Amino acid sequence: MVKNSFISILLKEQEENKENRGSIEFQVVSFTNKIRRLTSHLELHKKDYLSQRGLRKILGKRQRLLAYLSKKNRARYKELIGQLDIRERKTR
Q: What InterPro entries does the entry give (predicted)?
């Protein structure tokens, strides 16, 4: 659970600066936190299909935000996925 504690530290840093709540980085960090919580929930409750649907929706939102960030600012994108330990998206 080292990853979750690291994410909570990132969230606390982001929450201190209330003006940046709409920033892409904050949104991706909060989505990642939700994804990790839902994933651990689904390991226990395999037939919770509504949570699976919610997880897929959040994954799609995070994917779209990361795609936008990679187009606009590649350095910030690389730094963010490095901090969150996320795989880089596949390119076609």
A: Ribosomal_uS15, Ribosomal_uS15_bac-type, uS15_NS1_RNA-bd_sf
